[in-house]
Design goal:
By secondary structure, the protein is mostly helical. The protein has one domain. 54% of the residues lie in helices and 0% in strands. The chain contains four helices and no strands. The chain has helices at 13-27, 47-65, 70-80, 88-93. The longest helix has 19 residues, at 47-65. The protein starts with 12 loop residues before the first helix and ends with a helix. The relative contact order is 0.16. Residues 16-92 form the Tyrosine specific protein phosphatases domain. InterPro entries: Prot-tyrosine_phosphatase-like, Protein-Tyr_Phosphatase, PTP_cat, Tyr_Pase_cat, Tyr_Pase_dom.
Length: 94
């Protein structure tokens, strides 16, 4: 469960589980699952969504490059959505 307010969870386990579930559902989607977007929403549209999207980007980086550049991932996300990952705790959580 995500803490109330602008706090991040103590553990990343829940987030990783949700990402795994979403990716599993997407793979089972008929007709080219890679074209099916995953829509993510949160109460303000930035804090939790930013962490979810950032975590997905980092997981993809790890799968492809076998390393993760969190700074670059956040920088790329913020080109289109400057409000994403705007608190130090969110950045550290990633």
């Amino acid at each position: 469960m995500w803490p109330i307010g602008n706090k991040v969870p103590l553990s990343t386990t829940g987030l990783v589980d949700v990402i795994k579930m979403a990716r599993s559902w997407r793979k089972r989607a008929p007709d080219r699952p890679e074209t099916k977007p995953i829509i993510v929403m949160s109460h303000n549209g930035v804090s939790r969504v930013g962490i979810y999207i950032g975590a997905n980007i980092c997981i993809d980086q790890m799968d492809i490059d076998h390393e993760v550049d969190v700074f670059h991932a956040v920088k790329m996300m913020r080109i289109n959505r400057p409000q994403l990952i705007d608190m130090k705790d969110e950045y550290k959580y990633l």
